[in-house]
Amino acid sequence: MSFSAQFFSNPVRLLAPMEGLTDPLMRQILTQIASDLGRPYDWSVSEFIRITHHVLPEHVFYRYVPELKNDSRTESGTPIHIQLLGSNPELMGENALVAAELGAPAIDINFGCPAKTVNNHRGGSVLLDEPHLMRDIISAVRDKTPSHIPVSAKIRLGYTDSSNLQGIKSAIADSGADWLTIHARTKTQGYKPPAYWEKIVSFTELKIPVIANGEIWNHDHALRCSTQSNTAHLMLGRGAVTRPDLVAQIDNPDITLPWQALIVHQIAFLQGEAKSDLALIGRYKQWLGMLSKGYVEAKELWEDIKRVRDKQSIINKLEAQMG
């Protein structure tokens, strides 16, 4: 079975890699919710693993992707693809081989990260200005990775602007990538609305599947994104964190996750593994702040706990809301 037939026999729904947000704990919570709602994510992609000067030891891969020890799946069964970021084709290829040997079901390459510190060190979206290097990186990863393991790439529409789309498109076409995910904004546009879904259309002429990403917050956005981008395949980012039921609502807007049902997952998050309780509370408050855009109850809870620094006190408040 070809990669396209295996992964794209139906429209796919993916959970996006978001540095500092969709870490292993958040991946587990969001994929569990999706599974419980009857529309599991087809897969998720890890936060990027930075490749700089050498082949990374195994423990680094396990730290970023502990799911490798569980057949590269979350506890709810969602596959996790490993994302690499770097600018040295040979080193990217060698690290991809290590990831494959550890059990990665697929390797994704990051050409989309807009972070200044990453871009200043020649990583992420800055490479969109060097399409030939992009091609060389993807090709090196493809050459080093066993043939049965797919290699994909995630890009934006450009670095400062979208004038180089044809060069990027040609690089992808010549690279050997098995599919492509496109965040429909440039690096300069960051995360500011709107997303330019219509600019994805030209990439759908490639002979590989294309996945659209960016500014999908509800069912209507998903429909318009698919229509304007000419692809049924979608990657969900901040919208999926704000409304964990988004992945199910895309196909059935009548499916919703009430606040009461979400409480048990918030408690599970607060009982998850972290460097410290303080770090976990900080991460939870970050999530609660995002949930407040989708749930009025989250706004009220945020006001109640924003100065609370004791984990059990927050859990107690959540349990009290369960009735």
How much helicity do the residues have? 40-55%
Question: Over the alpha carbons, how many angstroms does the gyration radius reach?
Answer: 19 Å
Provide the low-confidence segments as ranges.
none
Strand content: 5-15%
Structural class: alpha/beta
Inertia-based shape: globular
Strand order of the largest sheet: 1-2-4-5-6-7-8-9
Beginning-to-end CA distance, first to last residue: 50 Å
Give me the number of helical elements.
Answer: 14
Topology:
Elements: H1 3-7, E1 13-15, H2 24-36, E2 43-45, E3 49-50, H3 58-64, E4 80-85, H4 89-101, E5 107-111, H5 116-120, H6 131-144, E6 151-156, H7 165-173, E7 179-183, E8 210-213, H8 219-229, E9 233-236, H9 238-242, H10 246-249, H11 259-270, H12 277-291, H13 296-305, H14 311-321
Model description:
- The chain has helices at 3-7, 24-36, 58-64, 89-101, 116-120, 131-144, 165-173, 219-229, 238-242, 246-249, 259-270, 277-291, 296-305, 311-321, and strands spanning 13-15, 43-45, 49-50, 80-85, 107-111, 151-156, 179-183, 210-213, 233-236.
- By secondary structure, the protein is of the alpha/beta class.
- It has an eight-stranded parallel beta barrel with strand order 1-2-4-5-6-7-8-9, surrounded by four helices.
- Helix 7 links the parallel strand 6 (151-156) and strand 7 (179-183).
- Helix 6 packs parallel to helix 7, helix 11 (259-270) packs antiparallel against helix 14 and helix 12 runs antiparallel to helix 13 (296-305).
